[in-house]
Design goal:
4 helices; 103 residues
Length: 103
């Protein structure tokens, strides 16, 4: 018993123990950033901690954590368009010295 509250028996699923720890720490006023960093320093992977937080917040809100939805055109276009840096031409600088050498 801690502070008059019974401690549940350890779960065979470590993920459930992680979720219970997050819920309990938050209910006692611990900041999410502190809980997150503590769990990471104890060996939990970032993915495991983020997944547990997602489940905690889904339970709190009653809603699934939203994920970005891209339409089909953006899904095909985005990887290609983000591969190339913007040219410096907007600043008046050209990558070649003489504009008379163009085509």
């Amino acid at each position: 018993m801690i502070n008059g509250e019974a401690i549940p028996p350890p779960s065979s699923d470590p993920r459930q123990g992680l979720i219970h720890f997050i819920e309990t720490a938050r209910s006692r006023g611990a900041a999410d950033a502190v809980i997150f960093q503590m769990l990471r320093s104890r060996g939990w992977s970032q993915h495991e901690v983020e997944s547990a937080y997602a489940q905690v917040y889904e339970q709190l809100t009653g809603l699934p954590v939203p994920s970005p939805q891209l339409d089909r055109a953006n899904q095909q276009e985005m990887p290609f368009s983000t591969c190339f840096p913007l040219p410096p031409w907007g600043s008046g600088v050209k990558p070649w010295g003489r504009s008379d050498l163009l085509w």
